[in-house]
Please model this.
Amino acid sequence: MYPEPAHHPPAERAVEVHQPTPITPAIPVAVPVVAVQPGTVPAVASIVLPDGRVVTGYAIEPARPEPVAVKPAVSRTAVNVALGGVGFLAVCGGLILLTSFIAALTAFITQLIVLAAVIFGGWIAVQLFSTSGHQGGTTVNIRKAVFKRNHFHG
Model:
């Protein structure tokens, strides 16, 4: 399925070794590094090393951190008083909310009781004052009834 691998002798390549050759400057004077404003392209600077080589590149100024603003010291007592005041206000607010909730719940329960009384009273009134044909129980004409020895004989 796959072709047989072919073995080839390693290819010989010519290898050249390059050695850097120092450049001798016309005037062996150290070129000072020029500070450049940030945001602009820095100029290329060349430096002559003690052995006579010249290094050319950009002069980079090390990054300096921003100065930290000095914060005034706050006493622990002031912090504790402030936190205590915040906590006290939170507790007072919670108690006011709890009181309002209890008052609203009481009013709601009172309204439910009044509603039940009105509905039940209306049902009783309908039962008493209705003149519908069917009335439960036994109707007895008391004028004709005779009571003997705590017994009713009708």
About this structure: The first strand starts at residue 44 and ends at 48.
